[in-house]
Amino acid sequence: MPEQYRYTLPVKAGEQRLLGELTGAACATLVAEIAERHAGPVVLIAPDMQNALRLHDEISQFTDQMVMNLADWETLPYDSFSPHQDIISSRLSTLYQLPTMQRGVLIVPVNTLMQRVCPHSFLHGHALVMKKGQRLSRDALRTQLDSAGYRHVDQVMEHGEYATRGALLDLFPMGSELPYRLDFFDDEIDSLRVFDVDSQRTLEEVEAINLLPAHEFPTDKAAIELFRSQWRDTFEVKRDPEHIYQQVSKGTLPAGIEYWQPLFFSEPLPPLFSYFPANTLLVNTGDLETSAERFQADTLARFENRGVDPMRPLLPPQSLWLRVDELFSELKNWPRVQLKTEHLPTKAANANLGFQKLPDLAVQTQQKAPLDALRKFLETFDGPVVFSVESEGRREALGELLARIKIAPQRIMRLDEASDRGRYLMIGAAEHGFVDKVRNLALICESDLLGERVARRRQDSRRTINPDTLIRNLAELHIGQPVVHLEHGVGRYAGMTTLEAGGITGEYLMLTYANDAKLYVPVSSLHLISRYAGGAEENAPLHKLGGDAWSRARQKAAEKVRDVAA
C-alpha cells in the first residue's frame, strides 16, 4: 500500500473494508480518492436521493473523474402518474452507458438500487444512430419513432417528442441534452443541427445523433400484444375504456404505466446489478440495511393500500423491486467498502482514517470580535487550511470577511494543491468541513462559518421548494386551499381533472388565479406545488397569472437572503 494511503481496497467478490472516522465532506473526499485509485467504475450507494444529490455535488469538487447519478422516478411506489420525461431521459442515458463505463462514480440511492430495470438487450437493440448523409425515408423514420414511443406534436418542447414540417423533422431524443433538426433531401439526411427549444432557432451542425427508446419498455405492436397476453394471465379483463388493459390495447399509455412494466417483457426484469461492469467496486454510506428495510415496508404498505382498485390491479412488489434478502445476496457478488462516521474496533478489515469535526467556528455577529474563534483556530493550526464556497460571488463575500483578520487565501482547484501552512480557497459544493489529523489539513466550508446554508441554488428548480411545505400526496389538498406554484405564485386548489395532451391521457391539478384564470398542472409536476406558508389561509393573496407580483416577491425574498448571507 502506498504510504499516502491509509487503507487497502477490496478486490475479490464478497470482500469488504470498513472505513471509520469520517465526518462532513470527508466521505466525498474519500470517494473521490477511491475513484482515482480504483481501475474501474465505483458505484456509491446512498441512503436516499437527497443524500445522493449532495454527494454528487461534493464529490465533483474533489475529482476530475466523471460523477453521475442514476435518478429515481421521483414517484412513490404504485403512484398513478408517470415520471417526468426528463427523468426517464436521464435514466435511459445512464443505463445505456453503464455496461461500458470504464472509470468514474455512479451514485445510486438504495431504493433505486432495489428497483428492477429493463434488460440492457432492450436498450442496445432499440438504439438507433442517425448520420448526416444517411439514406432514410422520413415516413420510415416516423414509423420507427412511433414504435419507439415518441409523441408526434406540433412543436417539440420536451424529451420524447418529434414534429414534422415539410422537409424538416424536429426530434428531442431521450438521453440527449438538446433537440435536433433533421433536414431531408428526398430520402437522405442532408443536415443534422442542434436547435434551441425556446427560440426554435438552429445552432451548430452535428454529424450523428444517438436515438434511445422513449420509455424503459417497448411499445411496438409485438410488445403491446405481449402485454395483453400476460395481463390476461395475471388479472381479470374489464370492458371499461378507462381500464389499464383497454387503454394499452388501443395504444394509449395511461399515467403510471411504469408499474406494469414487467408485462411488456417475456422474462422477469433483471436487477440493476446486471448492468455493472465486472470490475465495479461498490461503496456505501449510511445504514444500508435500515434504509432498504424501510423502503420494502413502505412498498408493501402501498401495495396493500392501493391494490384494491379493480381498474388498476397491481403487480406484486417482487416483480418490480428486489427484496432486502435479494439485495444483500447481490451485494455479496462484489467487493465493497462501507463508510462509517464512528470509530471502528481494531480488525483486519477495518481502518480508522482520522477525520475529526471542526471546532465551533461560527461568526458571532453580535460580538465585538465576530471572527475571534476562526482567528484563534488559524493561529494554532499548523497545517494547510482550505476554505470552500459554492460560487464566485460567495468567494468575494468570504474574501471580504477574511480580510478583517488579514487572511488572503490563495485560489486552488484541487485539495491536494494545499501544502505547508498556507491558506487556500476553492469553489465547490462541500457543506461541512473537517480536520484531517493524518494529513494535518483542515477544510472549512462557508456553512461552518455562517451557519446552515442560507440558499442552496440548484440549477434544477424542482428542488428549490421548501421541503416543509412540499405537498407529497394529493390527499393533503382540499378545495379552495391556497397553494404556491413555483413559477406562477399563489392560487387556489380547485380539484382534479383528466385531460389529453399529445395523445396521452393524464390527471391534472386545476389551480385558479385572479380574474378566474385557470392553470392545469400535471400530477407529475406535483413537486412544483407547495402549501401556502405565509400566514393564515384566509389572508393568502391571489396572484394574477402572467403578472409580476410573484416575481417581485421572489426577488425581494432573494435580496433578504443575500443580506443575511453577507
Automatic annotation (TrEMBL):
<dbReference type="InterPro" id="IPR027417">
    <property type="entry name" value="P-loop_NTPase"/>
</dbReference>
<keyword id="KW-0547">Nucleotide-binding</keyword>
<dbReference type="InterPro" id="IPR048635">
    <property type="entry name" value="MFD_D3"/>
</dbReference>
<keyword id="KW-0067">ATP-binding</keyword>
<dbReference type="Pfam" id="PF21132">
    <property type="entry name" value="MFD_D3"/>
</dbReference>
<dbReference type="GO" id="GO:0005524">
    <property type="term" value="F:ATP binding"/>
</dbReference>
<dbReference type="GO" id="GO:0016887">
    <property type="term" value="F:ATP hydrolysis activity"/>
</dbReference>
<protein>
    <submittedName>
        <fullName>Transcription-repair coupling factor</fullName>
    </submittedName>
</protein>
<dbReference type="Pfam" id="PF17757">
    <property type="entry name" value="UvrB_inter"/>
</dbReference>
<dbReference type="Pfam" id="PF02559">
    <property type="entry name" value="CarD_TRCF_RID"/>
</dbReference>
<dbReference type="GO" id="GO:0003677">
    <property type="term" value="F:DNA binding"/>
</dbReference>
<dbReference type="InterPro" id="IPR041471">
    <property type="entry name" value="UvrB_inter"/>
</dbReference>
<dbReference type="InterPro" id="IPR003711">
    <property type="entry name" value="CarD-like/TRCF_RID"/>
</dbReference>
<feature type="domain" description="CarD-like/TRCF RNAP-interacting">
    <location>
        <begin position="476"/>
        <end position="566"/>
    </location>
</feature>
<dbReference type="InterPro" id="IPR004807">
    <property type="entry name" value="UvrB"/>
</dbReference>
<dbReference type="GO" id="GO:0006289">
    <property type="term" value="P:nucleotide-excision repair"/>
</dbReference>
<dbReference type="InterPro" id="IPR036101">
    <property type="entry name" value="CarD-like/TRCF_RID_sf"/>
</dbReference>
<dbReference type="GO" id="GO:0009380">
    <property type="term" value="C:excinuclease repair complex"/>
</dbReference>
